[in-house]
Model the fold of this input.
Amino acid sequence: MSTPTRTTLITTPTFARHSPDPWTLLADGGAGPVRPYDDRALPYDELLARISGADALVAGMDPVTAEVMDAAPRLRVIAKHGVGTDTIDVAAARDRGIPVVCAPGSNSRAVAEYTFGLVLDAARRISASHTAVTEGGWPKLFGPELHGRTIGVVGFGRIGRLVAGYARAFGMSVLAHDPYVPDDAVTATDAEPVTLDALLARADVVTLHLPPAGAPLLDTARLAAMKPGAILVNAARGGLVDDTALAAALHSGHLAAAALDAFAVEPLPAGHVLRTAPRLTLTSHMAACTPEANRAMGLMVAEDVLRVLAGEPPRHAAG
Done:
């Protein structure tokens, strides 16, 4: 007797983009993958319209709200094609008995490498020079060497620890702040555990690696408390930084530079205050975009979707 085919609605355009393996796994497992658009995410109103026939949902940055779940009477599992589940109402899913799964660790190296690329870009003004040269200029832009400087890593999970390792390879000292990681686990990596206030006061480079928690972590006061001339890098979540306060800190010269790959509203709106801030590198939330991470991420969530649809517990439950 054949297994009845179920439907997996895929709303992220990056699922299986660099390897057919995740798509094939779902199809061969009887989970009928469907992606309405190949080149962009599914708009929210269309998500509400299409979710009614889905047994599983594979989402990217889509807002998976209680309203979405209530529009899906057949929905049995929600999978985040990524790590952070802050765009999914996990509590609402739990109340409805719908497991939420994700792909922890699948993109850690990709994000960590990209983060350190942003550190180098912000320090040595690589993108700024490129823009000037393409516009006909030939500037000699100066920026500090990283050797002998101090990096402050806020959030010392998988990605933060990898970034710390890259920083040490450049001869940097490492400060780490993470209230959920014991001090001895931090010191075992040759990093110094410190409070957030101490990190901001001492670090030449501050990089963020944690989920948002309501109000921005770095507001006007905390940006002002950063070491004068410091560099800020955020390849985690946009809600961690007050955009207006950051723009002001760059305009005033209090911060030497910043580099951001995540924003509270994406795509970044035209006329946004960050678009005109000086010494700022902006990229389109692409830190996790490597073929290796894309394949690993897709396979992890596809496997858990099939497990849940088969009545088995997921390996990577969130929340």
In short: Residues 11 and 42 are 5 Å apart (CA to CA).
